[in-house]
């Protein structure tokens, strides 16, 4: 007989996770690799909102957990499934419903799955989770070599602090470096490029170079909403790519972009960027579900 139970023993949970299948595990990459960090995350999840398991004859067959990243905002990690067990869509719903049953209607529960490598769509359909957006991880292993000279792009200057700070904070709200942290980090391997036209900052790009791993990350970039669709972000990316390969001995330049428009993402191919991974993001909002069924 199957039972839905709440687990409270970290060692029991870790032992099952280590031996389980991850084919349908949301936010798998959020599991810390360091044991100490993993224990911290696990203890927080046990305390709130909980670790929920499906058991048969006292043996764990599947489990799901979550961690909070903001008030009533959660990222779901799971399901983890036993090697010889098949978790049906309805069984997944039972696990998820138990996990969220004590949370208020204004809560939001987020899922993330690697497209092409994980199976998740029927689970999301069963609980009525909605597609939110896609995170694309792109990388380029060489500069295409085309001549490029954009006089609108310069290194950061203090006079543009206010405009840069405002644009960055409007664009990146969660778990991002602050404008001051970015500026304080600037050195030989941390560069901030800004796009200036008519005396106005219309976009920026922050490049971090890791000489030990021989790669560079375009950590943040954005253009002002008043000047979108003018190719400013595209120009900044092209500039940073060429700058990185010309000034450092690196193997690749990479970045992440969040978008619903796959056609826009494909434009980066023109610069030499290729999609390395893509993660489909879903969210479940109880209040919307209740509204749908009551209307």
TrEMBL record:
SUPFAM superfamilies: Acyl-CoA N-acyltransferases (Nat). GO terms for molecular function: diamine N-acetyltransferase activity. The keyword Transferase applies. Residues 151-291 form the N-acetyltransferase domain. It comes from the Bacteria. Keywords: Transferase. This is GNAT family N-acetyltransferase. It comes from Staphylococcus capitis.
